[in-house]
Write a structure and sequence with these properties.
The chain is α+β, with helices and mostly antiparallel strands. The chain is built from six helices and eleven strands.
Length: about 240
Amino acid sequence: MLVMIDETDTSTLLDTPRTSPTLTHSAQIALPELVMAWGRGWAVSRGVPVPVTVPGGFRADVGRRGHRVRYVLHTWDTDLLEALDRQVTAPGTWIKVSGCATDLRSALSTDWTMESSGYLMTAQFTVGADEPPSPYETSVTTDGEVVVATVVDATGTAAASGRLAPAGECGVIDQVETSPAHRRRGLGTTVMRALSDHAARSGVATGILVATEDGRRLYRALGWTVQSEIAVAYVQED
């Protein structure tokens, strides 16, 4: 899913200051905790090992060609980034950090290729699911610990889907996708609201996701708030 940058100054993207007197529960959770919770939920959703805590964040052993391992840092630390630059340059290594893409480019050597940034976003889950337009139908099922919302067309073929994974008191939305032939019909919104409804009814208050640029626009319209740009770089694996 996660529909992922331009090198926009994210100070203009923060929908609600984290010091606002009308803070929601998600805004009361410190950014490092949000990033760590996202990592735990992402790992559950993707079926990879539990992330390992490292200074400044976590390491996830993904084990896939082109994406062997990822380091995700919740706090900008130039010294730590420079150390990673020296020590973890194996092909298929990724670094994601809460911060600006241009700063990450400056902190790393030319061994690293920049990827489009993501946006860490949060929202309060609420009760209330949408009915998709006819002839689509929605189902909510489970896949182990993961809740899966799927919208199917009249033939029973999946048109859109998304996943909700547990992360302590939070829920992580992941892999929200709509098939090209079924876009611009509000199916992504239907999936998001189905997952939010399930989470809220299950007592999960706070949602977390990392969105692409296109996804950010959709999620903001649904009440999600940008908490941080997530800058991304990787070492290419041939």
